[in-house]
Amino acid sequence: MPTHVTLEVADGVAVITFDAAEDLNVFSGTTGRELGEAYRACDADDEVRAVVLTGAGRAFCAGADLSAEAASFAPAGEDFSASPIRPPAWEVRKLVIAAINGHAIGIGLTMALQCDVIYVAQEAKLAIPQVRRGMIGDAQSHFTLRHRAGLSVAADLLLTGRTITGAEALPMGIATAALPADQVLPAALDLARDVAANASPAAVALSKRLLWKDASPAEVEAGETAAHRILMAHPDAAEGGAAWRERRAPNWRLSVDDVDSQ
User: Fold this and answer.
1) Which of 115, 138, 155, 222 is a Cys-bridge partner for 98, taking CB atoms 3.0 to 4.6 Å apart?
2) 9-27: pLDDT as tens digits
3) Residue closest to 240 by CA, chosen among 93, 256, 208, 248
4) Interhelix angle for 151-160 vs 141-149, to 10°?
5) Hey, which residues does 31 pair with through a beta bridge?
6) DSSP letter string over 163-200?
């Protein structure tokens, strides 16, 4: 049976879950399609301010199904892509947090690397072992891992296929935090709720666009200046300061769609 994806939204936070605990949430084409659908739904919903991606049971995602039938790969056709999740998490205009509650292997890890923030279980096993299977890393991992942790770490994991723990991922720059497994999802939800309550959706979207873009310092300066002009021209700029002074949650009116085309 394929691993399906569930989506639940409450208090401005969407939780996307790989929902095949008994099969360690192994990845299939169905999983990729449903994750893309969930991301698109979150991106389009103004009520969603932050997204948490996690796995049911004791694994985040144990990678592709390597059972005998599933592993009999046919030659790639013209419609094949090594990046089957559309859109990737970095194109979702909200904060996306990976809550890696257990093992993340192969595409299980490369999907998480597309997220903005990564919380990981200390004892979780993490690997991109594809070179040991006659393949290479997928889901844009040659970009995301280098972008996140640098060339040395990317070369280490992509070219050796070795396994590390969640605790090791933290000093390597892969993870934002490494926690006991039972604390990973609660910590991710706490951060998501805080962002949902306090951060400007438009500002998050504009900042995220710049953060993931491969741009020169001059291009970044131009992008930051353009974003400031958009945000400073809207009453939300005054609302942010007023909410801070009055020690209350801000009432943002500028939406993601308002700034998307600017």
Assistant:
1) 115
2) 999 999 999 999 999 999 9
3) 248
4) 140
5) none
6) EEEHHHHTTTTS-SEEE-HHHHHHHHHHHHHHHHHHS-
Same-domain status, 150 and 211: no
Provide CB contacts within 8 A for 247, sequence distance 6+.
none
CATH code at 249? 1.10.12.10
Res 68: pLDDT: 46
Given 179, 196, 213, which residue is the final one in a domain? 196
> Is the pLDDT score of 206 beyond 80?
yes
Strand partners, 135: none
Do 232 and 177 sit in the same domain of this protein? no
Query: What is the tally of structural domains in the chain?
Result: 2
Asked if residue 146 and residue 106 are part of one domain, the reply reads: yes
Same domain, 139 and 50: yes
Local structure of 156: helix, strand or coil: helix
Q: Which domain holds residue 251?
A: 200-260
Q: CA 95 to CA 256: how far, in whole Å?
A: 12
Same domain for 174 and 186? yes
Each residue's pLDDT tens digit, 137-180: 999 999 999 999 999 999 999 999 999 999 999 999 999 999 99
What distance in Å separates the CA atoms of residue 233 and residue 101, rounded to the nearest whole number?
A: 42
| Residue 161: both structure tokens together | 């296929």
Calculate mean pLDDT across residues 111-132. 97
Question: Distance (Å, rounded) from C-alpha 73 to C-alpha 151?
Answer: 30
**Is-contact 104 126, C-beta < 8 A?**
yes
**For helices 217-232 and 201-212, angle between their N-to-C axes, nearest 10 degrees:** 170
Q: Is the model's pLDDT at 252 over the cut of 60?
A: yes
Reply yes or no on whether the pLDDT at 69 is more than 80: no
Return the residue matching tokens 């932050």. Answer: 50
> 137: which 2 tokens?
């890393």
Q: Quote the pLDDT of residue 70.
A: 52
